[in-house]
Amino acid sequence: MVVSADLTAKHYKGDEGLEKFVIKGGRRLTGEVEISGAKNAAVAILPAVILSDEPCVLENVPDISDVSIIIRILYEMGADIKTIDKTTLRIDATGIKDAVVPYEMARHLRASYYFIGALLGKFHKARVALPGGCDLGARPMDQHIKAFQALGAECGIDHGMVDATADMLLGSQIYLDMVTVGATINAMLAAVRAKGLTIIENAAKEPHIVDLANFLNSMGADIMGAGTDVIKIKGVEYLGGTTYSIIPDQIEAGTFMIAAAATRGDVLIKNVIPKHLESITAKLEKIGVNVEEFDDSIRISVDGPLVKTSVKTMPHPGFPTDMQPQITTLLCLAEGTSIVTEGIWDNRFRYVNELRRMGADISVDGRVAVINGVGQLQGAPVKATDLRAGAALMIAGLAASGITEIEDIYHIERGYEDLDVKLRGLGADVVKKTTPGGTEVRKAIS
Ligand code: EPU
Q1: Which CATH number fits domain 39-245: 3.65.10.10, 3.30.365.10, 1.10.540.10, 3.30.450.40?
Q2: Quick check: pTM over 0.90?
Q3: Of 116, 263, 350, 378, whose CB count within 10 A is highest?
Q4: 288 C-alpha to center of ligand 1: Å?
């Protein structure tokens, strides 16, 4: 991980050229792969360092572009950041004085909204541009605002910036109208130093929520119940330094599980928490995939036919929406007709058009996809429409006959560390190609 003036070099690499993955499909994936730290935990824990009154050391930080941008935001705000090794950072955020995150920075990712909770919690004020991130349909922030207001903050949106200020933050009862990861995390960040007791009801239960609570508690916070739907937070006045290791990425692990299954491979996936993968494991077993669990690894193999199933995405511990495109792709290769229902996002089937180019037989009506198994996909030129869609197209390309070229891979690099390198380690024929002079080409075609 590069921490310097060219901190975001990874993210902006796209300006040097149009990058794509070129996959020659049809190879079985075999061998071992190591899972990186969890993106959705890292993007919450990094802004949370602002809440600390002392430097913190974070281990198992994934080297992905979403994380690079957050580090860049911290650095620009005045944090002192040192790279200890590729995945370990020492961050001293005590130099941050200004509670503003400008548009240019925030627009690149969804998780920039965690700066609102962290800055509000520390300075009682925050001014953060409305976030970007994957286009999955409407992504409102009403529950985040409701939580901040419950704690005593005034919130408004002006010129594309969220403004939150409070004379004092007071613990409060916050009932979330729907299960939301983002609002649960933001409520925790804002409440951790508030005066008195905060109770978050109908809280999200994702592993990264527990990880954030563990991180904050290791700094001296008093949070109980993370991982259940009621989280209790007793505000503290001081948060100390800590050394903390981020959990492994559940979705990266699930993506490799499906890639192994789709190529009828035999892969040992290391550095995972099998409990976090239970809903994925259960569906894969139904489809006919062998899943063997060990303490911190999981082995995937296939020796019989893949068969249809139905999947509905739900908040944790249900089947994760962030695995929906990948499992839909696997079901294209299974016998029979499968049904996949998206339970979280309005518009998470845009990648289906790309899969159709590869021979998939999928019809979509609103949030429901009906997939007729076709047994074999064919390589084709396709475009990643968002992060998990990109991962699904990688899986499709690995399993397909012939060559698949995936454009707009910056979406994939937002959330997967060295995906091509890890896949090559498993025997895949995948290379990253850059067309020189991409900026000029883009200007010419825009
Ligand atoms: N919602 C509201 N109002 C709010 C907040 C959410 O109506 O104030 C709705 C959303 O529109 C959605 C549902 O509640 O229908 C759940 O949204 P949630 O807040 O849980 O999503 P998020 O925090 O914006 C995170 C992940 C997503 C993942 C979802 C669901 C991060 C940075 N992002 O988004 O991850 O899909 O939770 O698990 O943690 C990804 O990694 O590819 C990704 C998109």
Answers
A1: 3.65.10.10
A2: yes
A3: 116
A4: 30
